[in-house]
């Protein structure tokens, strides 16, 4: 199996909590105060593996806003779900980051430093 990832991923044990909401759908920005809970299982500069009880669709037109805390700093990411699989009663997702704050980039760089 070929690893197509450009950036190193770090498995988080235990997974860290994150909350997400729909930010944009079909180029229409949405304002919502409703969040879904996710657990971040692994992390890289370009993506995350998430787990949730909720069944989200895979749609490039659906942009999620994700909030996650790393090293005590809140980080904000915009991205899309690019794959999903069912795991028992939960769903595991691949989240591709489209944009994020500099603090996230710094934190992940520290985690993935060899």
Would you mind describing this structure in some detail?
This protein is mainly beta and 114 residues long. The chain has a single domain, classed as Beta Barrel (Thrombin, subunit H). 10% of the residues lie in helices and 59% in strands. It has one helix spanning 102-112, and strands at residues 10-25, 28-29, 36-43, 47-52, 62-70, 73-87, 90-100. It has a 6-stranded antiparallel barrel with strand order 1-3-4-7-6-5. Strand 5 and strand 6 form a beta hairpin. The protein is globular and about 35 Å long. It starts with 9 loop residues before the first strand and ends with a helix. The mean pLDDT is 88. This is PilZ domain-containing protein. GO terms for molecular function: cyclic-di-GMP binding. InterPro entries: PilZ_domain.
What spatial form do the alpha-carbon principal axes imply?
A: globular
Major sheet: arrangement of strands: 1-3-4-7-6-5
> Helical element count?
1
Q: Roughly what percent helix?
A: under 10%
Sketch the major β-sheet.
Answer: 6 strands, antiparallel, barrel
CATH evolutionary superfamily: predicted glycosyltransferase like domains
- N-to-C CA distance: 24 Å
Class derived from helix and strand content: mainly beta
If you average the pLDDT, what whole number results? 88
Name given to the CATH architecture: Beta Barrel
**Count of spatially separate domains:** 1
Strand content: over 45%
CATH topology: Thrombin, subunit H
Determine and state the CATH class: Mainly Beta
Structure summary, number of beta strands: 7
Query: Radius of gyration from the CA trace?
Result: 14 Å
Unreliable spans = none
Order of helices and strands: EEEEEEEH
Pfam family, one: PilZ
InterPro entries: PilZ_domain (IPR009875)
Protein name: PilZ domain-containing protein
GO molecular function: cyclic-di-GMP binding
């Amino acid at each position: 199996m070929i690893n197509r990832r450009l950036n190193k991923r770090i498995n988080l044990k235990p997974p860290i909590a994150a909350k997400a909401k729909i930010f944009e759908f079909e180029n229409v920005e949405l304002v919502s105060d409703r969040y879904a809970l996710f657990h971040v299982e692994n992390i890289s500069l370009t993506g995350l593996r998430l787990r949730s009880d909720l069944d989200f669709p895979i749609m490039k037109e659906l942009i999620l806003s994700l909030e996650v805390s790393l090293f005590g700093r809140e980080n904000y990411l915009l991205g899309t779900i690019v794959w999903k699989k069912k795991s028992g009663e939960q769903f595991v997702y691949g989240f591709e980051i489209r944009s994020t704050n500099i603090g996230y980039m710094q934190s992940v760089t520290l985690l993935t430093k060899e």
